Amino acid sequence: MIKEIAEKFDLKKDTIRYYDKIGLLKPSDRKQNGYRLYSISDFKKLSFILKAKSIGLSLKAIKDLVNMYENPSSYSCKEVKEVASNEISKLNQKINELEQMKKKLIFLEKSCLNDSSRDASNCSILNNLKEKNL
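The structure assignment produced for this chain is given below.
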């Protein structure tokens, strides 16, 4: 049942329900009362999902990899690698964006006179944010 799988993996039941909703982790069966029943295979699949999530893969990439994991003879290693390569490209883009944000924040920090006796009405950080396109 959902409670057991959530406790086993230290997840909220809502997370398991969400994975079900998006088709990532469908229960093997359902009771008449609607309770989800999970098999050993489902536990292994969730473990796979969580490992993929722990390295920062997107849910779309995880869905693709789960499909490949469940149907390995339908895919080539090259196709699996393409999923990883696409995720690396996305991470590199995010890293570049974060580096640009960091540079702008460093600029703001360095522009500060750090005069603790003054109020913030003439704060260079606030003024730069207000007036300049960073």
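Interim note for the steering committee: Helices lie at 2-8, 13-21, 40-54, 59-70, 77-111, 124-131. Residues 96 and 102 are 10 Å apart (CA to CA).
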